[in-house]
Design a protein that fits this description.
Helix content is 35%, strand content 27%. It is of the alpha+beta class. The chain is elongated, with a radius of gyration of 27 Å. The structure holds zinc ion.
């Protein structure tokens, strides 16, 4: 990253697992860095650096090849922390050209984009791994919460994510005081594993949306909607006055009829 920001190309000199020497690619250029690996760590500490160049512009031009997707992903990662989606691949190309004089393909920008998100927010797969512990603690911290994680066993004996349902204790308690009109809907998720978000909400006395429950499922189909209604029915009892509003997706109708 430093070499890209300062536009020069380096090569490794003498290196072994415990130390490394980096040199500028310029023939007689004095730039040189010596770093030692910290004990029991992946990190290196710079022990000495000669930080000036006498190399030619031609030699330095080669620095662009060092801009691999993983380096760009590291350079860009802070842009994906916090609120908002962060730059799109197209914008990464523009920033690399504008800020660093490096042209990259759309494909490389797209890969860098994914790596930058992983670097900043952690990998998608890691987030799924944390779900059981997260839901467990959520229920402990919010009494009355209904959280269910449905997994399936793969052929290799691994537990694979299938569905997740969540209704916070506060939503369940609040529903008792609401009119018996529930709006359900499903929408596509854009993440790496796609899937669908199913939601149920009502309206409070202030005419504001009152979230009741949501679920992550594979897609809007008969089985997934039925699974959703089964969980919803645990705190939304059937009632002659109960009205369910939907976009009349056939699976909603079917799932609802099975359960309620
Ligand atoms: Zn140099």
């Amino acid at each position: 990253m430093y070499a890209i920001v300062n536009k020069f190309k380096y090569k490794s000199g003498k290196s072994d697992p415990s130390m490394m020497v980096l040199k500028c690619c310029g023939n007689l250029c004095p730039w040189r860095l010596y770093a030692v690996r910290l004990k029991d760590s992946e990190l290196f500490e710079i022990r000495s650096i000669i930080n000036n160049h006498t190399c030619s512009v031609n030699v330095r031009g080669g620095y662009q090849t060092q801009a691999t997707a993983s380096v760009i992903g590291e350079l860009m990662k802070t842009k994906y922390c916090g609120i908002g989606a962060g730059p799109k691949p197209r914008e990464i190309r523009k920033m690399m050209r504008g800020d660093h004089d490096v042209s990259i393909s759309y494909w490389k920008a797209w890969k860098s984009h994914d790596l930058a998100i992983d670097n900043c927010q952690g990998k998608c797969t890691d987030s799924y791994m944390q779900l059981p512990a997260y839901l467990h603690n959520l229920v402990l911290a919010n009494p009355g919460t209904i959280a269910d994680l449905h997994t399936e066993r793969s052929q290799d004996g691994e537990n694979l994510f299938k569905y997740m349902f969540l209704a916070l204790g506060a939503s369940i308690k609040g529903y008792e005081a609401l009119r018996k009109v529930i709006v359900v809907d499903g929408t596509h998720l854009k993440g790496k594993y796609a899937g669908c978000l199913l939601t149920a909400s009502a309206q409070d006395g202030n005419y504001q949306i009152f979230p009741l429950a949501f679920a992550i499922v594979d897609s809007e189909n008969d089985v997934s909607w039925e699974w959703f209604f089964q969980h919803l029915a645990s705190f939304v009892p059937d009632d002659p006055q109960l009205v369910i509003v939907s976009d009349r997706h056939p699976s909603i109708y079917k799932g609802m009829n099975e359960v309620m």
